[in-house]
Amino acid sequence: MSDENEIEIDADDIERRMDGALAALRTEFASLRTGRASAAMLEPVMVDAYGANTPINQVATVNVPEPRMITISVWDKSLVGKVEKAIRSSGLGINPVVDGTLLRLPIPELNEERRRELTKVAGQYAEQARVAIRNVRRDGMDQIKKAKAQGMSEDDQKLWHDEIQAMTDAAIKKVDTALETKQAEIMQV
């Protein structure tokens, strides 16, 4: 077969999409409470500001002055109540203490039952990432099937199949490692 007729599988795109699934997983893990204060906990919280849902970090400065405390300094005094309401209704289980335009969020110690619930949630996030990676793998295998229809040799098909499977296995291993790390962090007292 000549070089001009050679069919290419976009391995870089497949790898990039698998890495994207891992990045999304890390973002979801960052939002899980571990008993330690983290500004990332507030990333999913949206504030109804100026007629639009806005991330909390776009209406206030978020700081972590100590391991069990988050402070939020709201820039616009009229939004303090809305920021407080958004945090209370976010499901994080944190009750803000309002002091002017400053909100203090004391992070309570997690009990054993809550820790177990959070490890299950982390497991669900990891499974979603695995499914996303498997979907990318399936797309790669579909590319191989199309290339086969266009005349790709069986040897090339086998090589691509093995490469895509190796990328999938490596990505799934990274998900499993990230999950183990997060679960250990959650269960740490």
Automatic annotation (TrEMBL):
| Ranges for domain Ribosome recycling factor | 25-187
> What are the UniProt keywords, alphabetically?
Cytoplasm, Protein biosynthesis
So which domain of life are we looking at?
A: Bacteria
The answer, when asked if GTP-binding is one of the entry's keywords, is no
GO:BP terms for this protein?
cytoplasmic translational termination
* Listed SUPFAM superfamilies: Ribosome recycling factor, RRF (SSF55194)
- Name of one Pfam family that matches: RRF
Fetch the CDD domains from UniProt.
RRF
Kindly state one GO CC term assigned in the UniProt record.
cytosol
Under the heading InterPro entries, the entry gives: Ribosome_recyc_fac (IPR002661), Ribosome_recyc_fac_dom (IPR023584), RRF_sf (IPR036191)
Primary localisation category: cytoplasm
* Annotated GO MF terms: ribosomal large subunit binding
Outline what the protein does.
Responsible for the release of ribosomes from messenger RNA at the termination of protein biosynthesis. May increase the efficiency of translation by recycling ribosomes from one round of translation to another.
The cross-references to HAMAP family, in alphabetical order and at most eight, read:
RRF
The record's similarity note reads:
Belongs to the RRF family.
The name under which this protein is listed is: Ribosome-recycling factor
